[in-house]
Amino acid sequence: MKRSIKVFAPATVANVVCGFDVLGFAVNEPGDEVIMRLTDKPGVSLLKITGDEGRLPLDPDKNTVSAIAKHYLQHIGQPNAGIEIELHKKMPIGSGLGSSSASTVAGLFAINTLFDNQLSNKELIPFAMKGEELACGYGHADNVAPALMGGFVLIRSYSPLDIISLPFPAELYAAIVYPEVDVPTKDARQMIRSKVYLKDAVTQWGNVAGLVSGLFMNDYELIGRSMTDVLVEPTRAILIPDFYVLRAMAMETGAIGFGISGSGPSVFALTRDKETAKKITQNLQQHLKSLSINSLAFVSEVNKKGPVVLD
Ligand code: HSE
Q1: Which is one Pfam family of this protein (predicted)?
Q2: Is 92 annotated as a binding residue?
Q3: Ligand 1 within 6 A of 24 CB?
Q4: Does any domain span residue 311?
Q5: Are 50 and 88 spatial neighbours (Cβ–Cβ below 8 Å)?
Q6: Residue 273's domain spans which residues?
Q7: Do 152 and 222 reside in the same domain of the chain?
């Protein structure tokens, strides 16, 4: 039995514009790392967190990684097992890239590996959803499911949970830009209308079906024209500096589609090649710089692996 492990789990782009809470995909970078050790002292302790600038709770009941590790131990009938955790944040918090999800998923994958993979990655999803509930008040799965399973994922239903891995074109790249303004998911969820008009719902489910069909058919045009959101984006766009200017720039530079990543403020574009994705991040970062806003950029294929053991 392994006594110590280091795991990386990836960031994710949730919603994919039209699929609020039901679509998401994983990227190769950024992501978070968790080191976990079995100890003889009963209980779960969180030894340290790095890279969070002191923003995350060190209380093991409040931090998602340790709190969910406790749930896992209870579930497998080992509530008194001894675990030590280190969380190394390698990605921005409150960025719309599934930061809490990457940490929780790295922790869950680590503990499940230490306890002989008693659950499948898919079976770990409800535990990770509890982590999202702790982090932002609602246990959505569109970050944790792709982070755990890799690839492009559809949450067909929450009750009962029904999660589908979708195919995607081999040459699909994401260009991600994170403007350094803080948008906590909790706040970004509270501002959305809870009631929608039927005509908007018709537009939205047409686009979700169109996007999923485009992924199956390798039809970039269809993917792109389905990346339209009439329900959530109009409200959340106001949190992102010059959102519509950024969109116009990305589309002019050759994006297939563009939108908010998760609850923002990160934005992303899908492209057919790495060069275009790079150009988009350069242009968007330059524009943000002209507004005196610092930003980070990532270019990635869709991540096919999900979490990986580093050590
Ligand atoms: N679907 C979630 C939301 C993702 O948009 O609030 C959060 O990253």
Answers
A1: GHMP_kinases_C
A2: yes
A3: no
A4: no
A5: yes
A6: 173-301
A7: no
The CATH number that applies at residue 146 is 3.30.230.10
What is 208-274 written as a DSSP string?
A: HHHHHHHHHHT-HHHHHHH---SSSHHHHGGGSTTHHHHHHHHHHTT-SEEEE-TTSS-EEEEESSH
Per residue in 114-167, pLDDT (tens digit) is 999 999 999 999 999 999 999 888 899 999 999 999 999 999 999 999 999 999
User: Does residue 64 have an active-site annotation?
Assistant: no
Residue 202 β-bridge partners: none
- pTM, 2 dp: 0.96
Whether the bond between 160 and the residue before it is cis, its omega within 30 degrees of 0, is yes
Query: Is 185 touching ligand 1 by the criterion CB < 6 Å?
Result: yes
Q: Find out whether 57 is annotated in a ligand binding site.
A: no
142 lines ligand 1 (CB under 6 A): yes
**Distance (Å) of CA 265 to CA 63, 94, 142, 144, 228:** 23, 8, 17, 19, 17
Residues 253-292: tens digit of each pLDDT? 999 999 999 999 999 999 999 999 999 999 999 999 999 9
User: Residue 143 has what DSSP assignment?
Assistant: T
Domain end: 124, 139, 166, which one? 166
What's the pLDDT score for residue 100?
95
Number of domains observed in the structure of the chain? 2
How many angstroms separate the alpha carbon of residue 135 from the centre of ligand 1? 12
Q: Are residues 138 and 224 in the same domain?
A: no
